[in-house]
Amino acid sequence: MPEYQTHAYDVLVIGAGGAGLRAAIEASAAGVSVGVISKSLLGKAHTVMAEGGIAAAMGNVDERDNWRVHFADTMRGGQYLSNWRMAELHAKEAPDCVRELEAWGAVFDRTKDGRILQRNFGGHKYPRLAHVGDRTGLEMIRTLQDHGIHQGMAVHMESTVLTLLMDSGRVAGAFAYDRERGRFLLFPAKAVILATGGIGRAYKITSNSWEYTGDGHALAYDAGAALVDMEFVQFHPTGMIWPPSVRGILVTEGVRGEGGVLRNKEGRRFMFDDIPELYRKQTADNEEEGWRYTQGDKEARRPPELLTRDHIARCIVREIKEGRGSPHGGVFLDISWIKARLPNAAEHIKRKLPSMYHQFKQLADIDITAEPMEVGPTTHYMMGGVRVDGDTQMSTLPGLFAAGECAAGLHGANRLGGNSLSDLLVFGKRAGQYAAGFAKENGAARVDQQQVNQAAALALAPFERGAGGEGPYQVQHQLQETMQDLVGIVRTESEMQRALGEIERLRQRAARVMVTGNREYNNGWHTALDLPNLLVVSEAVTRAALERQESRGAHFREDRPSKDAEAGKVNIVIHKGPDGEMRVTRQPIAEMPAELKLVIEEMK
Ligand SMILES: Cc1cc2nc3c(=O)[nH]c(=O)nc-3n(C[C@H](O)[C@H](O)[C@H](O)COP(=O)(O)OP(=O)(O)OC[C@H]3O[C@@H](n4cnc5c(N)ncnc54)[C@H](O)[C@@H]3O)c2cc1C
Q1: Residue 488 to residue 54: CA distance in whole angstroms
Q2: Which of 131, 127, 145 is nearest to 44 (CA)?
Q3: Which of 37, 256, 457, 579 has the fewest CB atoms within 10 Å distance of its CB?
């Protein structure tokens, strides 16, 4: 029998990013015991890296903004595949969530009359992103962390959940290991909230850190929960591309919100060449108008650099493919040009975009106040995830909840920038509230010792296989190459079929990987344990992308470049069949209530 420590909670939260912490705060406030587990140190989750801001229709900078406009923007951005109930709740509740964060101590940038300042971002009609320079995530996580600790949540850092434990279809807890010593940990729980973030590490070029291997998606799938919208992977248009060691690191959309423009090697602002019909009425048709928009002119329309991410990423790929790219295979993003318009432009840029200034100075020896940056698309965000109820965030399994990036619904086919941080607050809070309610109403579930034994044996298997076998890194590397090359920004049926074959071969290799050494801080072992999760999410992305035989939002098929009206009425749902094989089904999107339809019509 394996040795392990046991920590029992009413509500177990897996993940200590914005969603996990906000959920933990709410559950603690409801009077239940709460444990939070995180793969890295507290305060180091992805949320801390968020730069541009939190989208909330507070109307502080433009009084025309309100929940209705935010709702319509989110639905349009998601190409009408979003869960409309989530989009409605999000738009209505985000402003209060931001104000609550402020009441807990978050210090946002201010307007001249002392209100929370809001900035422009892609796809948002009005300036909507509450921010702290370009370090919003840091302020958010610091505030939630402090508040959460005072609410009494227990934290287990550097611990990775390996599997969810089930009791007759209901979740019963989780089994984990700690990275430092390699010891096993058992967490019996009445309710579990997944808040594990994204899947970026399934791709070679990504803005995501090492933690994002799709664990929550795979844990839910293996336990029997449904995943949805897995074909929609967001490739952010602007990641660093040079030098190679920093490739993929994010360059915030805030640069374009502050007036930064995209140019090809001929100096042309190519984004004016291709403005989608859906956005034509809202987009400036000349440079002068675009500039006025970034400077707060309420009569001006947004520049095409602030169109949605999916579209901009594809325009950049087109410029590169057609030979108009920058020397290192990207395009130019220039904020330094605003010198021609603003006195003290260099100081202004450093004040508004301090992290970007330092990032380029230190990593690429580029002074962004004086010269353009070179940028290209990077795998950034996962719209798809655990299918949840819009109000409660409960998955299709009783007692299993999900919130934040690992849950799906709000963003549909494409997420608008800034809508993730607000998603974490609104739905983290709801997940905490309803998980606490579930824990109170339902007694403890039974932990099945056999499941625990099996999980421990599986985790230790890579040590047992003896020397001479393959290590985990080659398999991980090859999977990332496969997803990047065959299931990336531009997809085709034949390439994705090849990817499926490759994923299957990699799965067989992953089942044979071996690791050496001991269990303390053994990175090879940790990578071996991440592999099954990466394979599940890669297969799910590929199968869903094959099933969606059209192009929509972040999912672009070169062999089916148009939208298909019928496909626009369904979500693609994935679950594990009784034979262990991945099942893909289409599920009709629920009819939107008339009053929400009206909002969309009014905002067109
Ligand atoms: C560079 C960058 C900039 C961004 N800027 C913005 C922005 O300005 N505005 C915006 O709205 N969005 C932004 N985003 C997106 C946003 O930051 C993320 O989508 C969001 O922070 C995800 O939050 P989360 O709480 O869902 O998960 P995360 O913050 O990703 O946290 C996940 C947690 O789960 C833990 N975890 C994962 N697997 C396991 C496991 N198996 N066991 C235990 N713990 C586990 C991790 O350790 C971590 O604690 C940005 C993203 C990046 C990468």
Answers
A1: 27
A2: 145
A3: 579
Distance of CA 466 to the CA centre of its chain: 38
Sign of the Cα torsion 480, 481, 482, 486 reads positive
Tokens 């909330």 locate to 56
404 Cβ closer than 6 Å to some ligand 1 atom: yes
CA–CA separation, 121 and 143 (whole Å): 23
Give the per-residue pLDDT at 469. 80
Cα of 555 to ligand 1 centre, how many Å? 22
In which band, very low, low, confident or very high, does the pLDDT at 189 lie, cut at 50, 70 and 90? very high
Rg value, the chain, Cα:
23
Determine the pLDDT at residue 308: 87
Backbone angles phi, psi at 482, to 5 degrees: -60, -50
CA distance 377 to 319: 12
Reading phi first (left if > 0) and then psi (alpha if -120 to 50, else beta), residue 452 is in alpha
How many other CB atoms are there within 10 angstroms of residue 192's CB atom?
33
Tens-digit pLDDT profile for residues 299-325: 999 999 999 888 999 999 999 999 999
To test the pocket of ligand 1, the residue of 42, 46, 101, 203 to mutate (highest count of ligand atoms within 8 Å of its CB) is 46
Q: pLDDT band for position 147 (50/70/90)?
A: very high
> Distance (Å, rounded) from C-alpha 252 to C-alpha 354?
11
pLDDT tens by residue, 407-444: 999 999 999 999 999 999 999 999 999 999 999 999 89
Token code pair at residue 42: 């507290």
Q: What is the pTM of this model?
A: 0.95
245 Cα–ligand 1 center, Å: 22
580: left (phi over 0), alpha (psi -120 to 50) or beta: left
Hey, how many other C-beta atoms are within 10 angstroms of the C-beta on 428?
A: 30
Sign of CA dihedral 232, 233, 236, 241: negative
Specify whether the CB–CB gap between 408 and 383 falls below 8 A. yes
* Residue 414 CA: distances (Å) to CA of 94, 349, 524, 536, 555: 19, 29, 34, 22, 9
Cβ–Cβ under 8 Å, residues 258 and 300: no
> Do the bridges between strand 159-167 and strand 129-130 make them parallel or antiparallel, or are there none, so unpaired?
unpaired
Record the tokens describing residue 517, joined without a space.
């050494």
Mean pLDDT of the chain: 96
- Residues 89, 468: Cα–Cα separation, whole Å: 54
Query: Separation of 575 CA from ligand 1 center, angstroms?
Result: 24
d(CA 173, CA 193): 10
Residue nearest to atom 51 of ligand 1 (CA): 50
* Pair of tokens at residue 294: 């970034």
Helix (H) or strand (E) holding 20: helix 18-29
- CB-neighbour burial class of residue 19 (10 A; exposed 0-12, middle 13-18, buried 19+): buried
DSSP 391-419: TT-B-SSTTEEE-GGGEESSSTT-PPTTH
Distances, alpha carbon 407 to alpha carbons 168, 282, 334, 383, 421, in Å = 23, 30, 35, 8, 13
